[in-house]
Amino acid sequence: MSLESILNNSNNYQPGLSIDCVIFGFHDNSLKVLLLKPKFSEKWTLPGGFVTVDDSIDVAAVNVLKERTGLTGIFLRQFATFGDINRDEIDFNTKVLEFFKIPKENAKWYLQRFVTIGYYALVDFFETIPSANGKYEIIEWIDLNNIPELILDHNKILNKALENLRLELNSLPIGFNLLPEKFTMTELQKLYETILGRELDRRNFFRKMNSIGILKKLDEKKSNVSHKAPNFYCFDTENYQKVLKDGLNMGW
Amino acid sequence: MSLESILNNSNNYQPGLSIDCVIFGFHDNSLKVLLLKPKFSEKWTLPGGFVTVDDSIDVAAVNVLKERTGLTGIFLRQFATFGDINRDEIDFNTKVLEFFKIPKENAKWYLQRFVTIGYYALVDFFETIPSANGKYEIIEWIDLNNIPELILDHNKILNKALENLRLELNSLPIGFNLLPEKFTMTELQKLYETILGRELDRRNFFRKMNSIGILKKLDEKKSNVSHKAPNFYCFDTENYQKVLKDGLNMGW
DNA sequence: ACAAAAGTGTTTGGCGTACACCCATGA
DNA sequence: TCATGGGTGTACGCCAAACACTTTTGT
């Protein structure tokens, strides 16, 4: 949705409220975040959007995700709402309007104080089709170890999302949305390690994961590796959903 | 702040955004929540408020707490934001306007769709001075085991607050804000038990608490009990703050 | 003396950590 | 046959759960 069309229909949008999504993907054994670099800004931004007056905020977040990745039915969690008074969104939005040469008078809706609701998502890197919104921005997977300076409080939002993801790891199984259908135990371990930011014992991880009962060992091994061929696993969807619902208790 | 004065200054208020606070207190060995019963409603409500355009949302929450309890410097945590489309706040707010005989035309600000940010607070029951807002409502401590039907999605908000409080119990020391200055170990245990909703072993709790190092044993015992006099304890403020900042890791 | 709850000590089992060892595969 | 990482077994130690026992107070 372009800024012009939003401003032309600003009555349809919840005033002063936005959504920002921290979209995590996993590739090359490292955790990535989907970020935007608009032409009108030196800094990068989180993909975001607005809330129409007749959509629930969760639906608005789902829509952002769909717009930016093409994906639906994804793991998505609200984690915090940001409403500090020094978010400086009015200054920033003024610059955006100048770039697009939209007169301030036509953009009252855009020049108010904004509060933003943060969501984070876990998506399959290879299923994702990152979509820039028109020619004024590029969208890219950025490695978590290499996050640039972001606009407003977006760095804070991203860090908070990561913090929450780490916490959730203790009570939720993850990986289903981040990994391809078939994967090796080591790939799953690397995922956990990048999220947690530290190394885990290979052998203990192996047993811990198996004991949860959300993995199915496949009759297939990875080939073309110059060592013992590791087995492929997939998630046992039924059990996975059950554990996702009931929660689980593992300290990492 | 009365509804009339808010409507007269609606430009000063963030549109479509409200704050709801779940204020927990501890008394008679049970957990209570501060609730309002407005005259214009069959149901009870959580104490809430609105956000002025130049206050951060956290400040708005602090203000609600101060208004309702007279307290400042209290443990207060944002836990979730609620923006389902079936919150039905417009229907409800319409009834409120009818009760106060405010014409709809003067209350556009009030008749939009609202999203609400949930906070929970832990306060000292005896320090709290519950304040009703004018003569159109009463305010009361309601036992957690006896929560009535609340307006809109307030029951859901309350339950979510409790859920979050229980989670936080694993990483934070609590009690400092909920108990009087001097207390016995059993009183502290009852507090944990009511929050968790289950009984704990007296002896293991005793040792666990002592091992954290946030308690100071006082040279004073409770008298007039027909059994061995329990010792009084207080919190070691310095250590308590340290643990509050650094977090802690105890499964309950 | 007795009831009731505080406070102390001890046992036990499960789980996480650490690590030794064998296995399979490509070069 | 060697390097490399996959997969299995096991021993140790800590901590939480369970419970026996002693202590102190009022009646």
Topology diagram in text:
Two copies of one chain form a homodimer.
Chain A: H1 3-8, E1 13-27, E2 30-38, E3 48-52, H2 57-69, E4 75-82, H3 89-100, E5 115-122, E6 137-143, H4 154-168, E7 183-184, H5 185-196, H6 202-212, E8 215-221, E9 231-235, H7 237-246
Parallel strand pairs in A: 1-5
Antiparallel strand pairs in A: 1-2, 1-3, 2-6, 4-5, 7-9, 8-9
The structure holds a DNA duplex (27 and 27 nucleotides).
Descriptive key words:
homodimer, Nucleoside Triphosphate Pyrophosphohydrolase, Arc Repressor Mutant, subunit A, three-stranded antiparallel beta sheet, DNA-binding
Give a structural overview:
2 copies of one chain form a homodimer. Chain A has 252 residues and is an alpha+beta fold. Chain A has 2 domains: 3-168, Alpha-Beta Complex (Nucleoside Triphosphate Pyrophosphohydrolase); 183-246, Arc Repressor Mutant, subunit A. Chain A is built from 7 helices and 9 strands, in the order H-E-E-E-H-E-H-E-E-H-E-H-H-E-E-H. The first copy, chain A, has helices at 3-8, 57-69, 89-100, 154-168, 185-196, 202-212, 237-246; strands at residues 13-27, 30-38, 48-52, 75-82, 115-122, 137-143, 183-184, 215-221, 231-235. In chain A, the strands form 2 sheets. In chain A, strands 1, 2, 3, 4, 5 and 6 form a 6-stranded mixed sheet that branches. In chain A, strands 7-9-8 form a 3-stranded antiparallel sheet. In chain A, a hairpin with a 2-residue loop joins strand 1 and strand 2 (30-38). The longest helix of chain A has 15 residues, at 154-168. The N and C termini of chain A lie far apart (41 Å). Chains A and B meet through strand 1, helix 2 and strand 4 of A and strand 1, helix 2 and strand 4 of B. Chain A binds a DNA duplex (27 and 27 nucleotides) through residues 184-186, 201-204, 206-208, 221, 223-231, 251.
